[in-house]
Amino acid sequence: MKSEKQKMLSGALYNALDKELTQDRLKARLLLKELNDSREDQGPKRREVLKQLIPNKGKNVYIQPPFYCDYGYNMNIGKNVYFNFNCVVLDVMAVTIGSRTLIGPNVQLYTATHPMNAKERASLLESAKPIVIGEDVWIGGNTVVCPGVTIGDRTVIGAGSVVTKDMPADVFAAGNPCKVLRELEQ
Question: What number does CATH give the domain 4-180?
Fold first, then answer.
């Protein structure tokens, strides 16, 4: 029989109130508290907290506090990635971010989702779909990326967008819902 964590990571319905998952979130929240309470001049402390919070990150990943996530260990971040102020990553399932990607302020990446059927939703079970963001992507401030979305390499997502479906590489896309507005020359 699968554990709730195994169900979560496989995309099946799972119970988020499971003891193991609750402990994992508590550990992440305590690390986030340390990160978010740190001062600008405490770079070494921030790097150590991020190393514990997000073990699967490349070199030169900079996250400007405040920052929030569910687990941390479900994020796979390339090198030279920048998160601006007040980002939220609901990393119930894998969130993969390619190298040299820029994440604007107030960007929210949601892998968590809930059943559309009201009776199923009332069971308090939830599920998740992974998010994949390519290399050299720029996501403008106040953007929401929904569960299961892939954003191609070198794409720019305009500020305030709600990305509900996959975006190809080398485009400028924006809006609610986000749509491709033009191709970008590289």
Answer: 2.160.10.10
